[in-house]
Amino acid sequence: MKTQSEISKEYCIQKYREYKETHHRIPTVKEYLEFAGFNYRKLIRVYGDDAYSKLQIECGNSTNKLNLERTPLEKIMQQ
Q1: Distance of CA 28 to CAs 17, 42, 52, 69, 77, Å?
Q2: Could you tell me if 20 and 27 are in contact, meaning their C-beta atoms sit under 8 angstroms apart?
Q3: Among 37, 40, 44, residue whose Cα is nearest residue 2
Q4: What is the largest distance, in Å, between two alpha-carbon atoms of the chain?
Q5: Which DSSP string corresponds to 39-59?
Q6: For a FRET experiment, which of 1, 7, 30, 63 has its CA 20 to 30 Å from that of 69?
Q7: pTM of the model
Q8: What are phi and psi of 6, to 5 degrees?
Q9: Among 66, 67, 57, which residue's Cα sits nearest to residue 26?
Q10: Contact 15/35 with Cβ under 8 angstroms?
Q11: What is the pLDDT of residues 14-70, one digit of tens each?
């Protein structure tokens, strides 16, 4: 396993792209972390909140994050 001082954005991006090239698909968070050899907390230290989503965007993919936007009350009352 890599230590914190060895993990950088470049390393994270490299591992993400390696997984994509090897498996011919976008990895899930769990698959990516197992492949990269570190845990989610270390990814958060590099990217901050929503770490995996930020990594996906940086690698040119869309996120698979669920958008939980609230429906305005006016729209509900019009139905």
Answers
A1: 13, 16, 9, 23, 38
A2: yes
A3: 37
A4: 55
A5: -HHHHHHHH-TTHHHHHHHHT
A6: 30
A7: 0.74
A8: -90, -15
A9: 57
A10: yes
A11: 999 999 999 999 999 999 999 999 999 999 999 999 999 999 999 999 887 777 888
Polymer length of the chain: 79
pLDDT tens-digit map of 59-79: 999 887 777 888 888 988 887
pLDDT at 5: 57
**CB within 8 Å of 61: residues ≥ 6 apart:** 26
> What distance in Å separates the CA atoms of residue 17 and residue 20, rounded to the nearest whole number?
5
Encoded tokens for 55: 């990594």
